[in-house]
Amino acid sequence: xxxxxxxxxxxxxxxxxxxxxxxxxxxxxxxxxxxxxxxxxxxxxxxxxxxxxxxxxxxxxxxxxxxxxxxxxxxxxxxxxxxxxxxxxxxxxxxxxxxxxxxxxxxxxxxxxxxxxxxxxxxxxxxxxxxxxxxxxxxxxxxxxxxxxxxxxxxxxxxxxxxxxxxxxxxxxxxxxxxxxxxxxxxxxxxxxxxxxxxxxxxxxxxxxxxxxxxxxxxxxxxxxxxxxxxxxxxxxxxxxxxxxxxxxxxxxxxxxxxxxxxxxxxxxxxxxxxxxxxxxxxxxxxxxxxxxxxxxxxxxxx
Length: 303
What we know:
Elements: H1 3-6, E1 10-15, H2 26-29, H3 50-57, E2 62-68, H4 77-91, E3 96-100, H5 108-116, E4 121-125, H6 148-160, E5 163-166, H7 173-182, E6 188-190, H8 201-214, E7 220-224, H9 236-250, E8 255-257, H10 270-280, H11 286-300
Parallel strand pairs: 1-2, 2-3, 3-4, 4-5, 5-6, 6-7, 7-8
Helix pairs in contact: 5-6, 7-8, 8-9, 9-10
């Protein structure tokens, strides 16, 4: 990579911190592990703080980061945000955050209001109910994007000027399209490239079709991240076509780089992920490369 490419500014649009010595993260601290798409995640059960991220970033020019809620104790969602606010003031990272609120909870309005009052909050993530495979996917499940109670909470986001980070498999993006059209003033950011876990020709074709349909909604963007595969190291050969397809579908102005660190340390070093992404977009005009690594995230997350 040339010196110019090494200096390209990066906003990491999806990263996590946790301090297991002082805070409670059930998935990292409870004795029974959760089902996890990368398999064994025991290597994540350690503190991960700004100094660790800076070490992993190395010489890359990461100028800002966006912290996504890390499944902190669900009974105290605002406590994570307050901890991150203090961390940001002390350490300079994260720059902003996406907080958690259970949109279908009876007190969703109160939680959303409290989250919105913290200055570093830009949006909310609450993973809707999802089926385990395309064949199991059905519309209208409780806790899904179709659920009237879930939508009641979602409707508050626009009133508070908050965006929504959507983590759901691609086979639920039809519901996301309807959500986007029903609430056109709320920005949706799809997490982890729509989770294209099935890399067979048929699986990728279905993933592309789902992205093409949801990308017709102008208020939906996508984060290109989370491309690891269970039992396999991150590779440019397997991931470059996915990266390029996602960008071709959404355009450089609605797509952005994200590391998903430290979760994706299970499949690659930070440098491998950044270098792979930059290699995959190297044939694009420099202005588009800057959009993908920096400008789109800056605009969409209102940095």
